[in-house]
Amino acid sequence: KQEVTQIPAALSVPEGENLVLNCSFTDSAIYNLQWFRQDPGKGLTSLLLIQSSQREQTSGRLNASLDKSSGRSTLYIAASQPGDSATYLCAVTYNFNKFYFGSGTKLNVKP
Amino acid sequence: DTGVSQDPRHKITKRGQNVTFRCDPISEHNRLYWYRQTLGQGPEFLTYFQNEAQLEKSRLLSDRFSAERPKGSFSTLEIQRTEQGDSAMYLCASSHGGNEKLFFGSGTQLSVL
What we know:
The complex is a heterodimer.
Chain A: E1 4-7, E2 10-14, E3 19-25, E4 32-38, E5 44-51, E6 56-59, E7 62-67, E8 72-77, E9 86-93, E10 99-101, E11 105-110
Chain B: E1 5-7, E2 10-13, E3 19-24, E4 31-37, E5 44-50, E6 53-57, E7 65-68, E8 75-79, E9 88-95, E10 103-104, E11 108-112
Parallel strand pairs in B: 2-11
Antiparallel strand pairs in B: 1-3, 3-8, 4-5, 4-9, 5-6, 7-8, 9-10, 9-11
């Protein structure tokens, strides 16, 4: 059974801090991994997609890394801002027909 | 490109009633997914379409759930004889290709009383 785990479930940091969110998956034969942001009561917004052949992707203050062999990915957020407060989810796919999501990390950035 | 649209945004129904949700994907996207999400959990896969063909359906879905995507454009998800356990956010997503980003709609929040 494919499982995706995200630790921690919640995180509170002061503004300006750099932070790392973690995602682990049980089966390493993924095709790709995506990181999403979800604001309360809203849909998900894809932030970064890492294909299985890639090691990392960057977009602005966000950097996501992928280590397939260990079944892990990290999302690094630099210089956090209150507007970064949201739930961050990761998802993996093994055949593009279905994506498996973690339960997310709820981030609160305090001004 | 207006994004993925879902209608309605909210639906309140009584137990035993049937409900239908609609999803309009981004126009050039041939892949369409339905997910269900409850509070504090990640989205749970329901079903997947490539163009008009329904290629995968969750074994968790009972026969009360059915989805269609006529002509490979919009999609509908119907729940018959709703139960309180069906209360959740129903999310639709689309993508242009398998190795491309998923675009989600804002979801339909279902409350079954």
